[in-house]
Structures are given as structure tokens and as C-alpha cells.
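Sorry, can you check?
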Amino acid sequence: MKIKLDFISNSSSTSFVYISDTELTLEKFLESVGVDKDSPVGDLFCDMYDELNNAIKNYGTAIKTIEEANALLGSYEFTPEVINKMKDGILSGKSVITSSLSSDGQFAESILCTSVFEIDSDHFFINAFNNYW
């Protein structure tokens, strides 16, 4: 039996990609996930939108070229299928932005971070299959 006596972290992080030709709005987000703002979980999903939008706008990295997308191949963050979606988005003139979430953040961010999720709607695509929980 081994016993670890150092600092042990239970924190988690999740990388995600946002692909769209328009800005993420609360209305589009709620419509895409099928949640009414006034529903019992409406406030939670509004908070999730805020966390995602903040991560995209303030911490996101724009992937602007096919070469930048190809550089992500072989990494643990995105599958080849998701990287192909990134390349399709770039070729279509859409914004392709990678960012991350942390379980050390607010409650809504922690939920998003510890969940594997994908939203593929008429408005946008978000893939967060990678997480380190």
C-alpha cells in the first residue's frame, strides 16, 4: 500500500471548443439546451451560460487557421472528429474558439467542468468531452 503525504488536488478542468458565426447569447443558449428561463433550473442554466460566455470572451483562444487546428491533433483535448469540425468552421468563416472551465470556480462552472457535454444546435457547436475529474 502506498500513502501520499503531499498536497493532493481534487480539482478538475475541462477544455472546450465553441464554433459559431454569431455571438453566444443567453436566448440562443437556453433555446439550444431546451431550458426555459423561468423553469426550476432556469437560474442554473443562466449561470452556466454566464460561465461559458465569460470563458469564451475573456480567456478563449481563437483558432484561425487550418494549421492551428491541425496542431491540436494528437492532443488529449480534442478528438479528430472535433478538430475536423473546427477546420470546417474555419473554412466556413465561423469563429472557432477554445477555452477551459475549472471545478474551482462557481457552482455552475463546476457542474460544467465535471460533465462531458456537447451542444450541436442551429446557432452554435460546443464540445467539452475532455475533462480531468
Summary: Helices lie at 26-33, 42-59, 66-70, 80-91, 107-113. The chain is about 40% helix and 20% strand.
